[in-house]
Amino acid sequence: MENEELCSAQLIGDMLDEKRFVEVRSIVVDFNPADIAALFDDLSETHTLMLFRLLPKELAAETFAELEGDTQERLIRSFSDNELREVIDEMYLDDTVDLIEEMPASVVKRILRNTDSETRAVINELLHYPEDSAGSIMTIEYVDLKAGMTVDDAFTRIRRTGVDKETIYTCYVTGNDRKLLGTVSVKSLLLSPTDCLISDIMETNVISVRTNDDKEFVAHQFEKYDFLAMPVVDNESRLVGIVTVDDALDVLQDENTEDIEKMAAIMPSDKSYLRTGVFETWKNRIPWLLLLMVSATFTGQIITSFENSLASMVILTAYVPMIMDTCGNAGGQASVTIIRSLSLGDIQMRDIGRIMWKESRVSILCGVTLAAANFIKMLLIDRLLLGNTDVSVMVSLTVCLTLVSAVFFAKLIGCTLPIAAKRIGFDPAVMASPFITTIVDAIALVVYFNIATMLLGI
Amino acid sequence: MENEELCSAQLIGDMLDEKRFVEVRSIVVDFNPADIAALFDDLSETHTLMLFRLLPKELAAETFAELEGDTQERLIRSFSDNELREVIDEMYLDDTVDLIEEMPASVVKRILRNTDSETRAVINELLHYPEDSAGSIMTIEYVDLKAGMTVDDAFTRIRRTGVDKETIYTCYVTGNDRKLLGTVSVKSLLLSPTDCLISDIMETNVISVRTNDDKEFVAHQFEKYDFLAMPVVDNESRLVGIVTVDDALDVLQDENTEDIEKMAAIMPSDKSYLRTGVFETWKNRIPWLLLLMVSATFTGQIITSFENSLASMVILTAYVPMIMDTCGNAGGQASVTIIRSLSLGDIQMRDIGRIMWKESRVSILCGVTLAAANFIKMLLIDRLLLGNTDVSVMVSLTVCLTLVSAVFFAKLIGCTLPIAAKRIGFDPAVMASPFITTIVDAIALVVYFNIATMLLGI
């Protein structure tokens, strides 16, 4: 697939240079817009514009909506006002709003200047919804029906207005006050007699979201209910737009990326990796690195305070990395499981008791397994095989007891911190491995040195 | 929402006890199947069966398909053969296959005994596709049309067969040999004259997947092309089924969960957190913990080999946790970014040069920032404020130079290992923080002790 794309980008570039425009047009006209957009990535700037101008109007607009922000911006800057108007006219309103949100002010001005006043008013309205709200991802291009229509009337309306709608498969029945009364699918329209009233076949138990609902909540509703589209209503239950499943899918993927980034102590970014500059990547990564570095120095303080004991038994230092890493991993496992389950809605805050009870049992199983493996390893490999006589049974016992208790604390902290974060309104995802590791390291060392003091009398 | 659900589970349980069946039925009959399924989770076992028996046949089957495996199993065990047959008859075939894959052998036998021989044959065929393939998630319930039909014929066919199809909105045009010739959407059917031929309006440049394609690949195609359904063909390009967007969405979410689990060094599990037993959770977590613990002991060996130098300058030990954590975090950031970008298709293996060049520059920016912050902190806080005279300028310099070089290595290793893993056919997700941390820790310590030997002459 990849090679095909590359090959055709090369080929199409050559054909454009040779002015074989009709041929190029006949090739790409059958492509899916997403594939043409991918092709644009591999074409030179001049070729991009040439190819774009060859596309039929509708396909051009569909392709444009699929492009990355920087390519869109470059194209707009090369467009005549006429071309720009044509593209904007053909695009769905939610895509236009997405475009406007990404473009710099000068480009936005030009876009708005080239839309008719009615569209401009709608765009401005859509732009007013908070960034992460249902309102910001909805489109107003839906089919609305009236309860008194017959199935036949409905089809007439769909045929007349459907061509510009983002989906026609779910139609929305509204009253005179624009209140959402019900939905009717084209499937039930098709399977009902033509003289049947919409009010008789519409689904009145409508699941809808509000304009201010978080877009991630909306996406999860799609996951739960398997809808193709979902109505968005305002505070007076008036229908103002719909969200389609393709946009919900994008929201879900963005949310997953954001969660994964946060779990790895990175500030989320909108752009893809190769499109993010070096400086920007640095800016997204350095705050957490600095914060975690400062926190980790507390762990250093703990070592400093046991400096004298350590000097008398340096062998203890050899196991510090293993204890730190193992406990960090154990805590990270628990925290990531809980963060993901919270995000999927598999667990609720009220489950905290059950979760802690489960994690304590898991942690003891894990701790004992690790300690046993480690005890054997220390005595067989470190002492017998490598002949390190400093590794006594008591030292091994110290390390193993530390593992059991520190893994226990690690898992408990790992499972409670994300829930605590959610409780106080933070994103649980920041309580993932890096943060947990820093806390767990400190605790593991305190446990280690205390057990050492008790057992080895240092 | 949550409270509502809880409240209604309680309420409905009480109503069932009071035998107010008609009332209960009239309440839940308007619920969405996903909501009834959620209700079942909060009902007692007897109430579950009582409520299930009150549901109309179709709603019962839809609800059944939404239930968790253990609830499904419990219900089947209480069903009469007749009830079981009714549920299976109403369910979509892909849901039946999912059910069979999850149930123990005895239940599977009963299910198969209660399906007619034709359905049984199809189920057996579907069960033969590899677990993660497109074939395993497809359904065979689609609308097929012939190229010679008119729009009117098509509607007649949809009306006659559509009620049992998982989607009717994309229809598939096949030749006599079942070869897929094109697709036509109900939207274009509705917007075309009724005497128009299907061959004139069908989309012939069809994007399809093969039965053996990985289901995650299929899901990503949905993300790319915004389809509602996607045709699945066999090796001879014959249409054998379709995958619908709701299933693609589930695959995508499962994949994300699996990636996140792997990144946290957990073996992926199919079940949700609270439904996984303690022993099973332990089994999913302990292999990586053990493996990483063993790897971390190499880090211990490095410390052991510098034992004498350390004994002469114990202050160096105080900065070991901070150096290990910081480099682990820096490497983890790079690896997770690369893993996610690979999974989203934002980067390809051929981009490795660009990636390494970018990461080296980012790592130097990060390293220098961290070193500068650390230098100031060590001299101002550790030395002046806390009065630790062991923290000399040379010691600070040692720690800071270590940070710059080790962060550099950490980021380079973090970005190359996931790509290398993919190259040799492993899942890049296993090369996330825990694994990277273990490697990076060892490298960071070697760098630290070598710089210390050079600068401090220990």
Give a written overview of the molecule.
The structure is a homodimer of 458-residue chains. With 458 residues, chain A is mostly helical. Helix content of chain A is 67%, strand content 6%. Chain A has a three-stranded mixed beta sheet. In chain A, strands 4-5-6 form a three-stranded mixed beta sheet. In chain A, helix 1 (2-17) crosses helix 3 and helix 17 (278-305) packs parallel to helix 23 (433-456). The longest helix of chain A is centred in the C-terminal third of the chain and has 34 residues, at 352-385. The N and C termini of chain A lie far apart (65 Å). Residues 1-6 of chain A have low confidence and may be disordered. At the A-B interface, helix 12, helix 13, helix 15, helix 16 and helix 17 of A face helix 12, helix 13, helix 15, helix 16 and helix 17 of B.
| CA-atom Rg of chain A in angstroms | 30 Å
State the largest interface: A-B, 113 and 113 residues
Strand order of the largest sheet of chain A: 1-2-3
Q: Structural class of chain A, please?
A: mainly alpha
Query: How many DSSP-defined strands of chain A?
Result: 6
Can you give the helix content of chain A as a percent range? Answer: 55-70%
User: How does the overall form of chain A come out from the CA principal axes?
Assistant: elongated
Element string of chain A (H = helix, E = strand)? HHHHHHHHHHHEHEEHHEHEEHHHHHHHH
Total of helices of chain A: 23
What characterizes the major β-sheet of chain A?
Answer: 3 strands, mixed
Distance N to C terminus of chain A: 65 Å
Mean pLDDT of chain A equals: 88
Low-confidence region ranges of chain A: 1-6
Q: Give the strand content of chain A.
A: 5-15%
